[in-house]
Amino acid sequence: MQLQLDNNKKELKSHGTYAFPVNVSYEQLSRYERKSFLWHWHKEIELTILLQGEMQYQVNDTIYHLQAGEGLFCNSNRLHTGSSCHDSDCIYISTTFHPRFLYGYEDSVIQNKYLNTITKHPGLHSLVFSPDIPWQKEVLDELSAIWMLSKQPSATYEMELQWRLTHIWMFLWNHLSHQTSSSGNSESKHTDRLKNILMYIQEHYAEKITLADIAATANICQSECCRFFKKHMNESLFDYLLSFRIEKSLPLLVDQQLSITEISNLCGFSSSSYYTKVFREHMGCTPTAYQAGHFV
After folding, report:
1. CA nearest 82: which of 46, 58, 47?
2. 3-class SS shares of the chain: helix, strand, coil, % to 5
3. Is residue 79 situated within a structural domain?
4. Which of 14, 152, 235, 249 pairs with 285 at a CA distance of 20 to 30 A?
5. Does 245 reside within a domain?
6. DSSP letters along 189-239, please?
7. What is the pLDDT of residues 106-161, one digit of tens each?
C-alpha cells in the first residue's frame, strides 16, 4: 500500500470527521512498498510514538533517527516522510488531529494565543520526544494512554481524548511558543518551493520531464534547482524522480493487468529495458520477479 495524495501532495486519508477531527492509528512500515511512505503534508498536527523498531523520519530538511520509546511532533502543513532503518520493520502509533479540535471556533482566544503561536511559527516544524527528558516523557505517556483509550473507548472517550491532547499541547506551548527563529521566513519560503517541485513531479511523472521544466515551476535557475533540492531532500532531483516513478509502478505490477512495457510507459520511462535496469537498482530484482513474488 501507499499513501493516497492529491495533486498538491496533500494526504487524502481521512483524519477523523468534521465533527470529531481526530484519528488514532496503528501503523507498520512493512505495510508500505519499500517500507517507506511518500513525502506529503496535511493540515492536521501529527504526534507519533514508536512501539517497536527504528525509523528515519524527515520533516522539511531535518532528518531524525527515531527508536522505540521515542516520539515526534510534526506541525501542521509541514512536509514529511518516513522510512525503515536497516530494512527492518517499525511499528508506531500515529495520532493526527485538526487544530480546530482544541481551539473550538475561529479567532477564539485559544486559537490565537495557544494554537497559532505554534502552528503558524515558521521555525517550529517538528520536535523529537525523548523519554530521558521529564516533560517529554509525560507527553509520551499521554500518547500511550491515547492509544490504549482508542482500543477500549470509555463512555467519555471524546472528552478524555480532547483533554489528553490539550494536556500535550500545554507542554508544547510552555516549551516551544516563546522560541524565535531568524531563519523562519526563509524556511517557509524553502518549504513552499519544495512543495512546488514535488507537486510538479507528481503531476507530470508519467511524461518527459526536463530540468528546465522543474526549475521553472520553482522560479529558479537549473543549477540552483539541483543544488536546492539536494540540500533539502538529501538526494538528487534525478534520483528522486526515478524513485518516485518506481514507487508508482509497484501497484501496477501487483495488479497484473498491464504488461511490463505498458507499465514502464505509464510511469515515464523511455523504454522497458531502462525501466528494468532502474527497477533492479532500486528493488534488487526485476519487475517480473517482483510481480511473481506477490503471487507465490
Report:
1. 58
2. 50, 20, 30
3. yes
4. 235
5. yes
6. HHHHHHHHHHHHHHHHTTS---HHHHHHHHTS-HHHHHHHHHHHHSS-HHH
7. 999 999 999 999 999 988 999 999 999 999 999 999 999 999 999 999 999 999 99
Residue 275 has pLDDT above 90, yes or no: yes
Give the CATH number, domain containing residue 257: 1.10.10.60
Is 5 inside a domain boundary? no
In which domain, by residue range, is 156 found?
22-176
Strand ranges (E), the chain: 22-28, 36-40, 45-59, 62-67, 71-74, 80-84, 90-97, 126-129
* Domain end marker among 153, 176, 199: 176
DSSP code at position 43: S
Q: In this predicted model, what pLDDT tens digit does every residue of 28-87 receive, in sequence order? A: 999 987 888 888 899 999 999 999 999 999 998 899 999 999 999 999 999 999 999 988
Q: What is the residue whose three cell numbers read 501507499?
A: 2
**Is 71 contained in some domain?**
yes
